[in-house]
Design goal:
The chain is an alpha+beta fold. The chain is 16% helix and 44% strand. The protein is globular and about 75 Å long. It folds into 2 domains: 9-59; 73-182, no CATH class. The chain is built from 2 helices and 9 strands.
Length: 188
Amino acid sequence: MSRIKVNDRVLVKESGEIGTVVTKETIRLEGNRVKVEYIVKFGDGFENYRAFGRKELSVVKGTGSPSQRSSVKEYTYESILEDGRIICIVGLVGIAKYKALDIGDNGIVPLTVKRKTLNVGYAICHPGDRYEYSLGLNIARRRAKERPLAKLESAFGGEFDESFVGTILAHKAEFIADNIERFIGDDE
């Protein structure tokens, strides 16, 4: 049995629902025994948070946060709209290197400039289609790499931490939801 961590995507064995673990609570029982419960988020609003025991959940494989193939860190965010559409947002944080020339006391000196970048991609699932998380994730990743919805760049290396990226992704999901007509039909 794999260990369940906060931000893991989990499957509820009984119902087949997929959600994200937002926190866990350790409850002390008699003696030295403890019970761990996980709070799982299934959508927006408090009514979509439920508690489960470890044996009721299983981790959805292949959707972890950091990418294993490169130094790019991946963050995800999902939003379910009132009409049933599901928006999957991906933020890829990486390092961009540029060749530059510096004019100083010693003349022109070539140097390499590093910048931290955040590329945001999205995927939208139509309410009539069956939702497949991995397909939405792949579409959002491809868009983040090839033609991002947003691209931010920073000279400060600590700029794009988890809370900052999460806020940006939530904001972009809200923007898409408010302007859905601008995004429908874009090679969905």
